[in-house]
């Protein structure tokens, strides 16, 4: 089966600075030591060997914010290089949407052919350690941040939304306020716990957010929170997400190399294959290929 991976990362620690890629940095994935080293295109393609991976989308890897366009320029050069097979075919970049001058950053990003969208990490829960960009919990309703968000529609960019279930009411308000902007929910809505009350709250939040037609979801990142994951363990989260949003608004993704801490690339895709073995062929094609191609305009 052909695969498009709509959520992976590359980084080059000799070329760029990534403040979060330090073993001491708190992160839901746990100890980052094994991935605190450069992970380049050759590494990614080697991990994907044996699968029919035909395209991919790179998600911003929290490069130093001094110049986030440097990451986009670097990735475009990789995609344009002989032998790259066009990887990564799409780029989701960082832009500080709360910055009054963010339009200039978006213009610079959009000079590059593979630019597709913006991710500003928003997941935040009171009392939990923060990481990456999630400095505060109220950006979704912040007027200045929303001014920056409003520019995404003008530039034809989508938004990758990374939040916890507690933020889904505010995210629904954002989706309804800007219906022209496609939202791609990251990491299955980030269900971090397995106790029944938490899972019920996550499902409720997912149903709330799914009422906005401009929201789709990437089923990924489950290894970050469930280090003992198996296909059977993640099955309820996968099937619930597909049931809530429908096969037309879901897609599978790897979250590599972050999920490499707890899984190998092939195991992740084999788990998705096993979980959806009884789905109709057309639905499976949407989940593994068609939806990623459509939502990221590949």
Which features characterize this protein?
10 helices, 298 residues, alpha/beta, globular, eight-stranded parallel beta sheet, TIM Barrel
> Helical proportion?
25-40%
The count of β-strands is 8
Helical segment tally? 10
Specify the overall morphology: globular
Taking strands numbered 1, 2, ... along the chain, how are they ordered across the largest sheet? 1-2-3-4-5-6-7-8
Order of helices and strands: EHEHEHEHEHEHEHHEHH
**Architecture, according to CATH?**
Alpha-Beta Barrel
Poorly predicted runs of 5 or more residues: none
Structural class: alpha/beta
Main beta sheet = 8 strands, parallel
Q: Total domains, how many?
A: 1
> Could you tell me how far the N terminus lies from the C terminus, measured between alpha carbons in angstroms?
18 Å
Q: Roughly how many Å is the radius of gyration?
A: 18 Å
- The proportion of strand residues reads 5-15%
| The CATH class | Alpha Beta
- The CATH topology is TIM Barrel
Mean pLDDT figure? 94
What is the assigned CATH homologous superfamily?
A: Metal-dependent hydrolases
Blueprint of the fold:
Layout: E1 2-8, H1 41-47, E2 52-59, H2 69-80, E3 90-93, H3 102-109, E4 115-119, H4 143-154, E5 158-161, H5 168-177, E6 183-185, H6 196-210, E7 215-219, H7 222-225, H8 231-245, E8 250-252, H9 265-275, H10 281-295
Parallel strand pairs: 1-2, 2-3, 3-4, 4-5, 5-6, 6-7, 7-8
